[in-house]
Design brief:
Layout lengths: L5 E7 L3 H12 L6 E7 L6 H11 L7 E5 L6 H11 L4 E4 L4 E3 L3 H11 L5 E10 L2 E5 L9 H5 L10 E4 H7 L10 H9 L5 E12 L9 H14 L1 H5 L3 H23 L1 H5 L5 H10 L1 H19 L2
Parallel strand pairs: 1-2, 1-4, 2-3, 6-9
Antiparallel strand pairs: 4-8, 5-9, 6-7, 6-8
Helix pairs in contact: 1-2, 8-10, 10-12
Length: about 300
């Protein structure tokens, strides 16, 4: 099958001002055989729900676009699962409502999976944009089973960068709806128990980081981390002792830096995993930290150039 149907699932919550941009990027694909499923996770009777309805109404003439409303706000994982349950595609692509697919994203990834049948999914490289300006790009490009890199937060692929074969998502049972953050990390770790993933070494996704309103509080982030480590305790215990220790120290250091970002230095020090662990995290996650610094510089330049 050279041109199988691809389902592009767009969960949306709280960002109707960005949604139309995401929809247009899905419609502007060079690969024609797509269906678009928008899952509205906004609470009913809110301005966000009303604005989302108005945006989608302008596309009601399209036969390949489906609009589904949740009866109450659930979360991003639940919205993706709702879209997946309704999809008809052989391949599945997820698109966050503030991201944009570049025109050849779907075509390049379908061609890749058609060519390399040993892979159950693939991801592409990502451009990062703030205020319509590219400030960084991903460089991680590894194929196969890179579960250990996922545990160590070294990978740079994300939910919008994937294209899955539908069959593997059915085996996985979709996303774990108990996770409000780390949904892509949680899914990837389970994914590597079933299959392997290839990398399309082209920049085919634009991640816009203008809006950070959906970032959780520190307490919620800490709970997600604890749930994550508890959920995958068996997989972590199966690792070599040194590797096991590195995984735990990496996530403790990640908590430290999140506390630093949200609460400041003195609060972060209460959650410090120790100087050595922080140095190791900064070395293994140097690309992630560099991206964060570049975004902050872009924000600073934008704010003070006006």
């Amino acid at each position: 099958m050279s041109n199988p149907l691809v389902s592009i699932i767009i969960p949306t919550y709280g960002r109707p001002n960005y949604l139309e941009r995401a929809i247009k990027s899905a419609l502007n694909q060079s690969y024609a055989n797509v269906e678009i499923i928008i899952v509205d996770d906004n609470q009913p009777y809110t301005d966000e729900r009303s604005q989302t309805e108005e945006i989608v109404k302008s596309y009601s003439h399209l036969t390949n676009l489906t609009y589904i409303q949740h009866i109450q706000n659930l979360n991003g994982s639940a919205a993706r699962n709702t879209g997946f349950a309704a999809c008809r595609g052989i391949y599945i692509s997820f698109l966050d409502d503030d991201d944009e697919l570049l025109p050849d994203k779907i075509k390049s990834q379908v061609d890749y999976l058609n060519k390399f049948e040993q892979f159950d999914a693939c991801y592409c490289l990502t451009l990062y944009s703030y205020n319509k300006k590219i400030y960084n790009k991903s460089t991680y490009c590894r194929s196969g089973n890179f579960q250990h890199d996922v545990f160590l937060l070294k990978h740079q692929c994300n939910t919008s960068s994937f294209l899955f074969r539908k069959a593997v998502l059915e085996k996985l049972g979709g996303f774990n709806e108990e996770f409000t953050r780390h949904q892509d990390v949680e899914l990837l770790i389970r994914f590597f128990s079933y299959g392997s993933m290839g990398c399309v070494s082209q920049y085919l996704l634009l991640r816009n980081v203008d809006d950070r309103s959906n970032m959780p509080s520190f307490d919620k982030y800490l709970q997600v981390k604890n749930d994550f480590l508890t959920t995958f305790e068996r997989e972590i215990q199966d690792c070599e002792p040194k590797s096991k220790a590195t995984i735990h120290s990496t996530h403790q250091a990640d908590i430290f830096f999140y506390a630093l970002r949200k609460k400041g230095v003195f609060f972060a020090l209460k959650h410090s995993p120790g100087f050595i662990s922080i140095l190791k995290y900064m070395f293994t996650s140097r690309k992630k930290i560099t991206m964060f610094i570049k975004r902050k510089l872009a924000l600073f330049k934008d704010r003070y150039s006006k």
